[in-house]
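Postdoc handover notes: sequence design on the structure in folder B. Input tokens:
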């Protein structure tokens, strides 16, 4: 069987998330620190106020994992802005039945969706952490003055001639062997979010791993049993991700008429949103050992030499939201 890489990746990840506990293999910011989800919740609350506090409003999360981020966000929102907590309805976009069950334990009053299409059209605050990186990508290779596309056959890449219509003019004529990636699912998701945010007041915050600039190179990676693995060898046994192309996503959102803020390094956005102050305040109520660990995790999320620079945050908003909390406009 020969499958185009994106078809292979979609099948492999659907099987992986349905069968495995991904958090046995990797950890994520909300699993490291409760402050991460709290800050994202407060970001949504401030955006809601800046958008005129609409009384009908959806709080949407894409790829909610164990539901930890949303549970932390709702707790912080309830304490800081009870009016937003009372107004909002929670909608979760999740395809894995196993993870839906985990989410229902932490966020019982949610409505689940397989995709954005079925989320009602209404004012919305959307958050997504490490969601876009799990969406299928395509890879193209420069060969003899043209391009081939990677397919997967029996655990290895085979190249087939690319459809020239799939090659963006901006890729130019790089040296032979250059690999370029295209993230059609991430682009389509961001485009439909952006269109919704133009039609109704709202804002979306994406946090993920990837470069701020548009660069050549390949970034498909696999994690199985907590270790780097062969991405093609056993579909469904490894978590497949790729770097998120922030420049292309930002452009797609702008083209759809939305306002774009960032991408900025995650550490910078979290620091502007009060990561260190909030962690400090939390630490004061804890034992010295717990306090130390809260400050350690704040550093892990925010410091440039840890996750603070590799991870980026990109906000997409209704065009009228000129100043988005956490971003320099
Ligand atoms: N946001 C969480 C989980 C990240 S793992 C955290 O930060 O901990 C990726 C999440 O996206 C999982 O919940 C996975 O099941 C979900 N996911 C992956 N592909 C998806 C798709 N195509 N549609 C909906 N959810 C998807």
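Designed sequence:
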């Amino acid at each position: 069987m020969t499958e185009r890489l994106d078809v292979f990746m979609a099948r492999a990840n659907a099987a992986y998330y349905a069968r495995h506990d991904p958090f046995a293999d990797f950890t994520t910011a909300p699993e490291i620190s409760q402050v991460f989800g709290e800050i994202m919740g407060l970001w949504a609350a401030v955006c809601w106020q800046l958008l005129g506090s609409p009384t009908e409003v959806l709080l949407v999360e894409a790829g909610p994992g164990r539901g930890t981020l949303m549970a932390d966000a709702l707790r912080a929102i309830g304490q800081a802005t009870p009016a937003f907590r009372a107004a909002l309805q929670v909608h979760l976009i999740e395809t894995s039945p196993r993870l839906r069950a985990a989410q229902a334990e932490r966020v019982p009053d949610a409505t689940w969706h397989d995709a954005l299409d079925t989320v009602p059209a209404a004012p919305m605050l959307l958050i997504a952490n490490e969601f876009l990186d799990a969406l299928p990508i395509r890879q193209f290779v420069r060969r003899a003055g043209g391009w081939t596309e990677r397919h997967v056959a029996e655990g290895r890449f085979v190249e087939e001639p690319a459809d020239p219509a799939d090659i963006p003019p901006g890729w130019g004529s790089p040296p032979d062997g250059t690999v370029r990636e295209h993230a059609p699912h991430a682009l389509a998701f961001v485009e439909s979010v952006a269109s919704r945010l133009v039609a109704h007041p709202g804002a979306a915050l994406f946090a993920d791993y990837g470069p701020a600039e548009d660069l050549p190179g390949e970034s498909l990676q696999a994690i199985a049993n907590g270790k780097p693995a062969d991405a093609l060898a056993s579909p469904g046994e490894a978590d497949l991700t790729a770097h998120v192309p922030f420049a292309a996503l930002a452009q797609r959102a702008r083209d759809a008429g939305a306002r774009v803020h960032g991408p900025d390094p995650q550490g910078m956005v979290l620091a502007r949103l009060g990561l260190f102050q909030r962690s400090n305040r939390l630490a004061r109520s804890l034992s010295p050992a717990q306090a130390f660990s809260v400050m350690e995790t704040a550093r892990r999320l925010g410091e440039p030499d840890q996750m603070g620079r590799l991870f980026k945050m990109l906000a997409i908003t209704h065009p009228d939201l000129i100043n988005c909390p956490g971003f320099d406009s």
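Context for whoever picks this up: The first strand starts at residue 2 and ends at 4. Don't rerun without checking with the PI first.
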